[in-house]
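REQUEST FORM: STRUCTURE PREDICTION
Request ID: SP-0412
Submitted by: Lab K.M.
Chain count: 1
Length (residues): 259
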Amino acid sequence: MNPVRKMREPEGTPYCFTSPGSGTTLSSSIVGDSDKVIFIAHGYLADKERGLYQMLARHLAQKGLGTFLMDFAGHGQSHGSPENSNLSTMLDDITAGQHFLRTRRRTIVGFFGESIGATAALLFASTVNLRCPLVLLAAPADKDAVWDEKTVTRWKESGLAMPQGKNKVIVPYSFYEDFSSHDIERAAKHYQGPVLVLQGDKDTTVPLHQSERLSQLFLDGSFGLIPGANHYALLPDQRRLVVSQAIDFFLAHPMDPHA
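STATUS: Completed
RESULT:
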């Protein structure tokens, strides 16, 4: 008989707060005692308890940095429906998270974002003129590279069932319309802080060439490859590689949001 593997408890002290824009209750946790925190922005249908984020938070704490983990509206323990989630609502949630952190006397000194959460982190940091280090894992930035014309046409006509594990969530066409309304390329060119773009070479959702090009748009951008990684799951070695590259990048740059 195989021994039962005991699950590790989620890191940090839990908090709930209300997003002023939507009135939605958001679930979060703060890891570490530092007043300087890395904000982790998870991907679509993920949540703050994803193993990658928990591992990153533990390693950041060992280096003396705090971490803020938040479930976007409709995800994890936050209220709302994932079908109503899009880039704009994620930006509102990040803004609410920043305001909450100020009440706890914490300052965002960096972002780690994955998938659509990485795109939201980039847009937020660029819009409010931060200059802190950003680590963006598999961030969709070019709608034409991510969704081909046939997919968009079918999506517009009937909605799109997107398989995620055992679940299928109907993502309304308004998600695509909202994504298209944001000028991500302009945000990247405008951002003046250091950025590390990470990407798996087996990702069939966000093309490798799109992420390579994204890294080249930044004034201070670099690119890191995660061999064998796809968009939805990381093997243990891949997860460790992402964490080590992120930690090294954060520590190599000033922990000042306006440096």
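NOTES: Residues 13-146+182-251 form a domain with the Rossmann fold fold (CATH 3.40.50.1820).
Reviewed by: T.R.
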